[in-house]
Every structure is written in structure tokens, then in C-alpha cells.
Amino acid sequence: MLDGKAALVTGAGRGIGRGIALALAQAGAKVVVNDLGTSLSGEGAEPLPADQVVDEILTTGGTAEVNRGNVASFDDATQMVEQVVRVFGRIDILVNVAGILRDRMIFNMTEAEWDAVIAVHLKGTFNCTRAASPHMRQQQSGRIISMSSVAALGSAGQPNYAAAKAGILGLTWSTANALAKYGVTVNAIMPSGATRMVDSTPRGRRVFEETGKWPTELAVGTERDPDNVAPLVVYLASDAAANVNGQVFHSYGYGYTLFEQPHAARSIRAQQRWDPEELARVFPKTLPAPTLGVEHRRRLSLLAVTLRSLSGLRALHHGSARVSAARSVYLLQRRR
């Protein structure tokens, strides 16, 4: 599907990024594998993860090069894009995956913890997209796919991560509108899967204590395998997805969900400026607003229930099932 295409995948040394880099190469793309090799908190540097992915691609007959730049650096991001163009002659695909975690409740978070996560996720996505977009504009073609997260819906204890991932959605929609006339598509994915981020949580530790294996080890070949995100990326990176632009998908298990675009739910209007007391009387009857926590849990619960209920469906040949749930539309579930 991707023969002759040149790709850059950031954060490709482990987890979701690794699976995407391998899948792009298997589909015929030439890949620059970027990974700084940091810890989950963004500290340190280790060359081995990126080297191993490149070696695996080369061993299976693919074409790949390593890059150890920091996406949070504008200059590094520019240089990694230029590396793709210099080595492969062009850049057709950019996949923004690189990320770190510094979780903390809002009342405990430090400025440094906020800045570090925003710098890697949101600024890093901007840096790479900014560097790739002039080349894609000149080529009149290109695919940009960025990882967001369901945390963007309001994950407590992750104000920095949630804000960055929500910001990526706005950046995706803006860039999709700006580059559409040049034949460039820009989409976002909210991925799921047992990565080292899951291993680092209290739940991950409990799983290890109970089974002797980390969630990442148990996930291989199952619905929790982070490699399940990769087929959607390969499709979105291909010529077959030329008309898919400005969309947000959720990857969960063996299913993919298309989220609806934000839209107005209801409104009230008056012939003159509202009086606060009158607004207080009318508001509960016309614009009932549940607390964010309740609404957030409701959305996630509906989404999870829908995905579970559809997990046994077999897709019709050359068809798809469409089911509305929590502002999302179920696209395709294929049982293997």
C-alpha cells in the first residue's frame, strides 16, 4: 500500500510508535525511526530502542534510518524532517507519536511538570508538522497522523497530558483545513493498548504482582496489543485514504471508532442582553449542564459499552457497521 513512500515516525522506539514504524515498513514505506530513548518522564537517553526497530526493519528487507532528535526542539524536529528528504528524496508521511508522562493532580502539579509534557506532546507535534508541511505543500501530497488520547476528554490527574492531547485535536483540525487544497490530509488517533505507560501505573504493578508479568507482556497478540493501532495508521497514510481529512479516530482492541466533530447541542436567545437573574431562572430549564465529571464518565462508559457490545459482530463483505455512541460512530469490527 505504501511502496515508494517516505515516512517519519516520532517516538518509534517502543510501544505504539514501534508498531507503526514496523507496519509502515512492511507496507513498503521507507522509514526514519525517531526516538530519543528517554524514560517515561522524559529524562535520560538510550539509543538501543530506536536501533532495534531499525535493525528489525532492515532484517526483514525494509529500508530505515535512525534519528535521535528531540521533538520538543524546533531545530531537532526540522533536522529530522530534512533527514527524511535528504535520504529518501521526499517526505510523504509524518506520524507524531513521541510523548512523556508527568502525572499529578492540578493542585500538586509544578510548572516544570506542565511545561515538559506540553513541550513534547503539543509543541513536538507542532514542530514536526511545521517542518514537514512546506515539503508536502510543494509536493501537493502528504499524510500527517498525530496521536491524541481519550485523556483529552478530561482525565483527572493528567491536566498537562489532557491539555496537550486536546491541543493536538485543535492543531489537527486547523492544519487539515489549511493543507487540504494541497492534497495533504491531517488526522488524529486516540490510541489504546498496554504500553510501558500502563506498566507504570498502580494497576500495572498489581497485574505484575498477581501474574509475574507486566501488562505489556500479557498484551502481545491480544486486544490490548499496542500494535493494533498500526493498521489504521497504514490506511490513513495510503492513497486509499485521500478523502479522509480532519478526522479523529479511537483505536480500541480490534475496533476503530470515528468521533463526531464538535457541534452545538442547544442554545437560548433573547432580544437584548441577558439579565443574570433571568438567566439563572431560564438556564436550568433550557441548557441543563451536568457536571464535567459526570458527563465525562458517561461518555467513556457509553463508548466502552458500545465497543464491547459490537465486539462479536462480523463486518459485511465490503461493508461497515455504523452505530452512534458517546458522540462517536463505530466504523468497522473484523473478527480474525
Order of helices and strands: EHEHEHEHEHEHHHHEEHHEE
- The rounded Rg comes to 21 Å
Number of helices: 11
Which percent bin holds the helix content? 40-55%
Record the strand order, biggest sheet: 3-2-1-4-5-6-7-8-10-9
Q: Got a strand count?
A: 10
Poorly predicted parts: 307-336
Kindly estimate the percentage of residues that lie in beta strands according to DSSP.
5-15%
What does the overall shape look like? globular
Report the mean per-residue pLDDT as an integer.
85
Largest sheet: 10 strands, mixed
**Alpha-carbon distance between the termini?**
21 Å
- What class would the helix/strand composition place it in? alpha/beta
How would you explain this protein's 3D organization?
The longest helix has 29 residues, at about 110-140. This protein has helices at about 15-25, 50-60, 75-90, 110-140, 160-180, 195-200, 200-210, 215-220, 230-235, 275-285, 290-310, and strands at about 5-10, 30-35, 65, 95, 140-145, 185-190, 250, 255-260, 325, 330-335. The protein is α/β, with parallel strands linked by helices. The radius of gyration is 21 Å and the shape is globular. The protein has eleven helices and ten strands.
SSE arrangement:
Elements: E1 6-9, H1 15-26, E2 30-34, H2 48-59, E3 64-67, H3 74-88, E4 93-96, H4 111-139, E5 142-147, H5 159-179, E6 184-190, H6 196-199, H7 202-211, H8 215-219, H9 230-237, E7 248-252, E8 255-259, H10 276-286, H11 292-309, E9 324-325, E10 328-333
Parallel strand pairs: 1-2, 1-4, 2-3, 4-5, 5-6, 6-7
Antiparallel strand pairs: 7-8, 8-10, 9-10
